[in-house]
Amino acid sequence: MKExxxxxxxxxxxxxxxxxxxxxxxPHKVADxxxxxxxxxxxxxxxxxxxxxxxxxxxxxxxxxxxxxVLDRLLxxxxxxxxxxxxxxxxRWEIPPRGIVTDIHYQQSLTIAxxxxxxxxxxxxxxxxISLTAYFESKVGRIEVKKTIERDSx
Length: 154
Known about the structure:
Elements: H1 2-15, H2 18-24, H3 27-31, E1 34-38, E2 44-47, E3 54-63, E4 69-80, E5 83-89, E6 93-95, E7 100-109, H4 112-123, E8 128-138, E9 141-151
Antiparallel strand pairs: 1-3, 2-3, 3-7, 4-5, 4-6, 4-8, 8-9
């Protein structure tokens, strides 16, 4: 029954003008229904032993709202016990209502100092902290979601 109600609410949201919908669903309430996280337990993939050391991060976005969202950009700040690198995903991703997108990937080439910092963090069992800021476009306007993820190991 919940699925039918959610489906009908999504169809109604498509038909209602955006200036009315933004009054019924303020962006901050929609932001509470969006989950941005690392994908699974092996979402941090370092490749430190190659000639060009790199690290990959896999993300998933869960949209629990009845609105179609478009990920405009995802800003990433990564700490391996201390600030290590930051970057951004500028590719636009469509997130369907009540849907999950799991194949969002970020690849970062590393300097020698960054590689050494990651190796030091791994050998000393340091904390990994990833701060994310995601910006979405929707029918109710721009939505900002902030998230901090902490991990004990890679």
